[in-house]
């Protein structure tokens, strides 16, 4: 790996790290180790074509190794690529199944998707990204992983303050940062780095943290993380934040071998900062990271939720019923919610979400078209296979054909005669197929085809 560290960077860290600096610079020059997660939200989730012999010690779902982004395992949401250090953030946040969780800086979604699996897709996960293009990538990752408890929003942290004061039990601020910890994974990022850039990032992070404070319930938990080494963006910022908000205090984080304490000497000599956690690549098998966990004191006020109306008319219920009778074993009403012609199983019906730019609220079931209902890819990626009347198992050639956008011609008459069937490959549901006249018509979204 060829990482050209600037003189400013080297001088700064020589001063901060003393004798350790050369070992630290050398580690940034070495290759990083890849890792990935399996997805317990999927049926038979350990049935994947990857080596699971090297588990990551602090994660039930993380493994060292490489994955193929074009494989069925990836395409059907059984795998998610995430580097080892970043995996620990969701473990530190420790979301519970009844929590309302906010991931404030969430794209592309590696931490949100981990959080959702830890919540078993229950409770509420609001996953937000300020940048629209990145928010859409976040939304597609939420879909691929079969997550049903997430509201995906595209807002600035400030936008939340209007309606969501004291709303969330747990908040993650995985802050936009100078990315020093990612230099060896993404050597291009070295080019954007400067001493001024670090200052700009630190300033932006202070604003995001202040919003998070406003949105956190008394008694709630806030996790702050960055993938950078700079004291300004880590210990200094947290020391400043604690001095501004006396209700907030740091909590201990369990440290595994190679993980280090936060550095009080880098944060105004605040000894509480030893409770924070640092990962440096010369001591830890992962990229550079900082994490800390804080609690807000006080008792939570009663949360009065006002629900929106679901917006579904009698005609639409009939169309859905017709679809369900023909293609499903059963369909129980569950938070149905209509947005223009699209039907969702909402993650939240709380009226307050009207004030935000919501890209996805829960599970997108499908679309009402003229006289019919058509199911969405999101639904097949989240559905329990036993709920479908028919699943057609594609062979290797048929899978290739389908991924290239073509229909499947059946030579024998199949056992099913319903129109919408689940398609699986290597026992993983990945798409709907529309059956008629001995053909399975291709309905795989164009953006996902090869
Ligand atoms: C470190 S990345 C998040 C990575 C993500 N948590 C994950 O694990 O996949 C930080 C994100 O913050 C977003 N961001 C940039 N400026 C922001 C701001 N002022 N407020 C909130 N988020 C911002 C960036 O677009 C970026 O997607």
From TrEMBL:
Active-site residues from the entry: 227
GO terms assigned for molecular function: RNA binding; RNA methyltransferase activity; S-adenosylmethionine-dependent methyltransferase activity
Source organism per UniProt: Companilactobacillus nodensis DSM 19682 = JCM 14932 = NBRC 107160
TM stretches of this protein: none
GO biological process, one term: RNA methylation
Domain SAM-dependent MTase RsmB/NOP-type positions: 1-297
Record-given protein name: Fmu (Sun) domain-containing protein
Superkingdom of the source species: Bacteria
Family stated for the protein in its record: Belongs to the class I-like SAM-binding methyltransferase superfamily. RsmB/NOP family.
UniProtKB keywords: Cytoplasm, Methyltransferase, RNA-binding, S-adenosyl-L-methionine, Transferase
């Amino acid at each position: 790996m060829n990482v050209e560290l600037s003189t400013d960077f080297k001088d700064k860290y020589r001063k901060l790290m003393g004798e350790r600096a050369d070992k630290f610079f050398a580690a940034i020059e070495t290759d990083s180790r890849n890792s990935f997660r399996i997805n317990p939200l999927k049926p038979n989730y350990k049935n994947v074509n990857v080596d699971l012999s090297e588990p990551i010690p602090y994660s039930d779902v993380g493994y060292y190794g490489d994955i193929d982004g074009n494989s069925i395992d990836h395409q059907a949401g059984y795998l998610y690529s995430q580097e080892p250090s970043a995996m620990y953030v969701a473990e530190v946040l420790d979301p519970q199944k009844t929590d309302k969780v906010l991931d404030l800086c969430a794209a592309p979604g590696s931490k949100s998707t981990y959080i959702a699996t830890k919540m078993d897709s229950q409770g509420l996960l609001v996953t937000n990204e300020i940048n629209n293009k990145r928010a859409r990538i976040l939304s597609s990752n939420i879909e691929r992983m079969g997550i049903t408890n997430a509201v995906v929003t595209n807002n600035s942290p400030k936008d939340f303050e209007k309606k969501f004061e004291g709303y969330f039990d747990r908040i993650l601020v995985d802050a936009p940062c100078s990315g020093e910890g990612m230099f060896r994974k993404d050597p291009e990022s070295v080019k954007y780095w400067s001493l001024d850039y670090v200052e700009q990032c630190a300033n932006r992070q202070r604003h995001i943290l202040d919003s998070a404070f406003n949105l956190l319930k008394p008694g709630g938990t806030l996790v702050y993380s960055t993938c950078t080494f700079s004291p300004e963006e880590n210990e200094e910022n947290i020391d400043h934040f604690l001095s501004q908000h006396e209700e907030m205090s740091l909590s201990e984080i369990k440290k595994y071998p190679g993980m280090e304490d936060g550095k009080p000497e880098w944060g105004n000599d605040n000894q509480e900062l030893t409770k924070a956690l640092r990962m440096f690549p010369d001591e830890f098998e992962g990229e550079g990271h900082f994490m800390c966990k804080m609690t807000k004191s006080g008792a939570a006020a009663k949360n009065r939720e006002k629900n929106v109306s679901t917006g579904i008319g009698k005609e639409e219920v009939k169309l859905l019923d017709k679809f369900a009778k023909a293609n499903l074993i059963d369909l129980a009403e569950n938070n149905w919610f209509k947005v223009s012609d699209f039907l969702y199983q909402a993650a939240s019906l709380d009226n307050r979400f009207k004030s935000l730019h919501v890209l996805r609220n829960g599970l997108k079931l499908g679309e009402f078209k003229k006289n019919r209902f058509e199911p969405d890819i999101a639904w097949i990626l989240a559905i329990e296979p036993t709920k479908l009347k028919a699943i057609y198992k594609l062979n290797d050639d048929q899978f290739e054909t389908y991924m290239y956008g073509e229909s499947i011609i059946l030579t024998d008459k199949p056992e099913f005669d319903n129109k919408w069937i689940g398609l699986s490959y290597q026992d993983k549901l990945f798409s709907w197929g529309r059956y008629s006249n001995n053909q399975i018509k291709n309905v795989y979204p164009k953006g996902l085809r090869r």
